[in-house]
Amino acid sequence: MNRQEFQVEITLMNKPAARDPVGETIQKDLLAKKGYDMVFNVRSGQFLSINLKATDENEAKKIVEKMCNDLRIFNPVTQNLTILKVSKS
Amino acid sequence: MTVKLAVIQFAGSNCDLDTIHVLNNVVDGIEADLVWHNLFKESKYDGVILPGGFAFGDYLRAGIIAAHSPAIDEARVMLDDGRPVIGFCNGFQILTEAQFLPGALLRNDSLKFICKWVNLKVENNTTALSNKMNIRDVLAIPIAHAEGRYYTDNLKELEENNQIVFRYSTENGELTKEANPNGSLENIAGVCNLEQNCVGFMPHPERASEAILSPKRTTHGILFFNSIVEFIKRRIS
Amino acid sequence: MTRVNLNGEEVDVELTKWEFEKVKELLGREPNLTEIGMASVMWSEHCSYKSSRPKLKMFEDAEANYDYVLAGPGQDAGVIDIGDGYCLAFRIESHNHPSAIEPYHGAATGIGGIIRDILCMGVRPIALLDPLRFGSLKDNPHSQWLFKYVVKGIADYGNCTGIPTIGGEVEFDESFESNCLVNVACIGLGSIEDFKHAPSRAYNPGDYVILMGGSTGRDGIHGVTFASRTLTEMSEADRPAVQIGDPFTKKLIIEATLEAVKTGYVRGLKDLGGGGLTCATSELTGDGNTGAKVDLRKVFTREPGMNSYEIMLSESQERMTFIVKPEGLETVLDVFRKFEMNFAVIGRTDDSKILKVFDEKNLVVNIPSKALSESPTFKREEKKPDYLDDLLTQKTPKSSLGLDEIIYRLVASENICSKEWVYRQYDHEVGIRSVVKCGEGDSGVLRIIGTNKFIAASVGVNSKHCFLDPYEGAKGGLVEICGNIIANGAKPMAMVNCCNFGNPEIPESFWYFSQAVEGMNNFCREMRIPIVGGNVSFYNEDDVKKTAIKATPIIMIVGVIEGEDKIITLPFKKAGNDLFLIGETKAELGGSEYHSLIYNLQGGIPPKVNDKKAKATWDFLFDLYENDLVKANHDVNKGGFIITIAEMCFNNNLGAELKLKGCYDENLRDDEFLFSESVGRFIIETDPKDYKIIIKKAEKFGADIKKIGVLIPKPEINIKGLKLKELNLNIKQLKNLYDSTIPNLMEI
């Protein structure tokens, strides 16, 4: 099988029901006070861009999911992992 | 003569009371007020200190939200007319985010918060925070921060303009890698603006001004506060 | 979980059948779902101490028997009067279970909770201490993960709130592998006036009830599970079992609360922790002998559509309840406005002695205030485990290692080595009170600015000793923790404890608890140390292996030093000075680091406390301090007396020449003398000219003392007078091993 290079972009964010003090503070203490009062919610998270070799997009995605779970790159108790994009790099 | 200083209390400052204690009870010649950041008015004061802590939780980036506080607009007036505007630790981070000072403070290279005593070598002794010191003095002082790695893409200009005020060093004044606690560029611990009335640095002089708190019973912290007083006196006279 | 019939429907409740009937009896009718939820939270082990309370009653009444105790057990924190108009509040609590699932937020919110408990007493939190337990770090990524993030959680939260973490202890042992322990302690300092302003009671009808701080969300509602229809459509997986800490908001809550208390208009104060609004409102009114009407819709919620059950039981972080005098309402609210804190006036107190909660017009809770605060208790069975007799008779095997090799290994063991990797991450200096800092002494010493008074605090216990004998182990813990602050020159003033044990429904696990409580009780009565608070964490049991953690009754002692010149520190000071070993060394290798590290042996005879000897030693030391005869002091602890000497050599480039002939019972083997962990011992450094007077004083007090050697200006320890051979230890090598263990395990 031919292995190609892929780029997988993921975000780690607190679950919707878990608080995100960072986002809240950016919204309340920075944006709202500087006139951006149309903004009513900000959520923060971590973004990772991962380049890897795999046979196809599906496998690339699976590898990333597995390693994030196995190595506790995110904690499923408080965070969600979202795969934003899988593309050939 | 007594000089009048304001210590700004941002939401999340936590060295504010410590700084006030040292200014009012340890150092001579200063009368200091603790002022809530939304209520600060520059006209009453000869100088202003932004203390250490975690203003707005250091959320997003240390210092960025505080840099948008009304207190910074007031401080800008002082900056422009030459009164001392000083930042310690989080205050330094705020001053760089407000672009009063060049450069930025990144996460420590260890990726950890570090609380320890370090040695600081004086590189410029004409600023508002260092005029009571000698060039090449080595001072004992503690740091306590997670984001203190100084970085600038304009090192040459800083050096040419003599804007590097303090560097981390060994006890003997050598600028080694081991003496650099956080991976700062060229061991830089503190810098000033061109006019030298605005100075920021990462360590905590308020923790180094009383012998009982110092491992070797030194009180080097007092020199920083005395420098502020001297700077104001020279400016007025 | 019990299935009961509630108003014609079958539901599962977290109450026993008997408790459910009791709720019906108290109300005189069928409870509704919200009321059931409130009862099950209030009567949970966590809130009600229903298993432990019958045992804890054994402790003497601290408030009645000690005139300097201002608040004792049952309040949010113990409070003592330390003179000059100042009081100290302190408490220790566990956050074990949340930290095992999410170490970062679990530990962080543990710190958040203990800070609120101290704040409730109207005083400023000034110090944190954290005793921790994990499985061994070596070759164990899970333990490393827990350790790394628990420390980071404590650091990030404590550092941001500006409260220094001044001490703690860590023990690594396989019994904590699936149940780590994260205990958190906080000390508060204030004027006695401040404390009197803020009782945790709503004793005056007509006052306003104000909720201040973070918003109320659906997080942390997990004590009770009902049929899913009572919850929203959100699945369990989406419901975070662990809270997210927000130290920035907490910092503002601290400042806003202290400023509000200073106005004089706050009449009562209570934090929202376990049990949320339910616990806060029923305890405030129950303890204050009042009632209250509360409107749930005034509570600011984070998510839309929260029902009364969820609002009453939410355990969202960073919230406080204030009881405010009517005439001061606006003044107090202005303080909250200044700090831009969310707040809501949610109700008023009255003299009905009934807690009525409305959801708009609907009365959703209608419970006598005292009904829930006085919970039923259980008598648990206790039985000494069968395996103990075998363990206690285990003998030390023969070792092919030389004694020097063993010492080098011991100094590098996880449980003995330097914890600098941990405390460098804690801001231990903020507040400019830290005089004896982390790594400089057996305890943390803080100054009280404006006085010549200092306080010292230490926490811990030896879990390995407690496992073999919980009665003696708990007493030994007290001797050791008191010894820590005594080594720094402080007189023990009061104790709080945090009892970490297995499942109380298992007789063997409950036996450990019962024995430990008895040990603490007897020793504290004998030594006249008031017990001013405690916390119990049961169910630290591995469900898979069916084993409990090693019994860990963590002890915290706070004491006072009168005068800067009376502070004693650990490092050796001057070559030529004498070294004394105080206290008797016995063949007590059971539960020692030596047994466990070298032979992987848990058993043997553990240390036993001689109350009279311990007292004689302390009195003797204080007499020496009074006469300024002690230059350095360190209590003998894990690894035994030789490790203690090594630790004292690390700072000032000094060494020791030890002559041990005649210094110990001739029936002891060399390894027994060197590595025994007999409790109540100290190593002191003194001026040789004072030799005679010291010996004379020891005789007077009946303290055991032996001169064991002198300090030398070379970094080595020479040991003569052992039975086997002379030893020569290189201090640089010892120090290197001592410093590198944890970084080597964690920085890979």
Question: How would you describe the overall organization of this protein?
Answer:
The complex is a heterotrimer of chains A (89), B (237) and C (748). Chain A is an alpha+beta fold. In chain A, 28% of the residues lie in helices and 35% in strands. Chain A is built from two helices and three strands. A three-stranded antiparallel beta sheet of chain A has the order 2-1-3, with helices on one face. Chain A is elongated and about 55 Å long. Chain B has one domain (3-236): Class I glutamine amidotransferase (GATase) domain (Rossmann fold, 3-Layer(aba) Sandwich). Chain B has helices at residues 16-26, 70-80, 90-97, 155-160, 221-236, and strands at residues 3-9, 30-36, 47-50, 85-88, 104-106, 114-122, 138-145, 149-151, 164-169, 188-192, 198-201. Chain B starts with a strand and ends with a helix. Among the domains of chain C are: 22-63 and 198-373, PurM-like C-terminal domain (Phosphoribosyl-aminoimidazole Synthetase, Chain A, domain 2), CATH 3.90.650; 570-748, Phosphoribosyl-aminoimidazole Synthetase, Chain A, domain 2 (Alpha-Beta Complex), CATH 3.90.650.10. In chain C, the strands form six sheets. In chain C, strands 10-12-9-13-11-14-15 form a seven-stranded mixed beta sheet, sandwiched between helices. In chain C, strands 25-27-24-28-26-29-30 form a seven-stranded mixed beta sheet, sandwiched between helices. Chains in contact: A-B, A-C, B-C. Chains B and C meet through helix 1 and strand 6 of B and helix 8 and helix 10 of C.
Features:
heterotrimer, A: 89 residues, alpha+beta, three-stranded antiparallel beta sheet, 2 helices, 3 strands, 28% helix, 35% strand, C: 748 residues, Phosphoribosyl-aminoimidazole Synthetase, Chain A, domain 2, 26 helices
Low-confidence stretches of chain B: none
- Report the principal-axis shape of chain C: globular
Q: What CATH first level of the domain at 22-63 and 198-373 in chain C would be assigned?
A: Alpha Beta
Q: Assess the beta-strand content of chain B as a share of residues.
A: 25-35%
Q: What percent of the residues of chain B sit in helical stretches (DSSP H or I)? A: 10-25%
Class of chain B in CATH? Alpha Beta
Shape of chain B, please?
A: globular
Q: Structural class given helices, strands, pairing of chain B?
A: alpha/beta
Query: Which chains share the greatest interface?
Result: B-C, 30 and 33 residues
Unreliable residue runs of chain C: 223-240
